[in-house]
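quick one before i forget lol
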Amino acid sequence: MKESIERAKVLIESLPYMQKFRHKTVVIKYGGHAMVDENLKKQFALDVILMKQIGINPVIVHGGGPQINLLLDRLQIKPSYVQGMRVTDGDVMDVVEMVLVGKVNKEIVGNINHCGGRAVGLSGRDGDLVCAKKLKVSKKSTIATLENAPPELIDLGRVGQVTHINAEILRTLERDDFIPVIAPVGVGEDGAAFNINADLVAGAIASELKAAKLILLTDVEGVKDKQGALIHSLLRADIETLIDKETIVGGMIPKVRCCGEALARGVTKAHIIDGRVEHAILLEMFTHEGVGTEII
């Protein structure tokens, strides 16, 4: 009986959050270990279905870097990176689209549908959902005689940045109670595909939909201070200061900047949470303590 009462208390604790987020949109960037571990994959599907059942509108944007690298290795194509971004020529773009759209996306959709949900897989090219242009990256010249020369442009191939989100297709799916699952492949003005960072696509979609939450699943607890302690809450205005002080470093920098930009464009709250934790999304959404780092 005590165990039953404790379960009832958990449900009562969750009630205010269920009421608060009913009919609200939550954009989830799905990646890392949560996409690999079979148990976590099932839990993620069930978490998303539960959110939909109680009236929340989840929108999923997924990554797939390890899966892309696996196929590139089988094809004996060596991956190349510049400033943490995958150099994407025509052959690599074919592999990226094949893996993200043809394999990873369909697996996520299949998991959700198998567990009783109603998911629909999309690429950013479907309905011109994610419009993009070529990402321009530069570095300073290292030649002394060219000290005053303009920065050198680096060609990353078909790596893109989001220019516009056509969200009508997402609103249509929402009206019909489907869960959109989106592969981060954009479409350029020439109709060709662009490889885009999944965090940035999630942030852009959350901004366009004025989402109540943007949640980034990672393989770390969240943002940490210099002593390694988790920062539970972070102000958007403090992001650049913490980067300058080297409190936020490495791969966490683009994630917090992505969250900061989404907040500046209308998203209510952003969260960076540990996808290795069982039911991490539900713990963040429906408990007083939450998990990971919230950015407000």
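fyi The radius of gyration is 20 Å.
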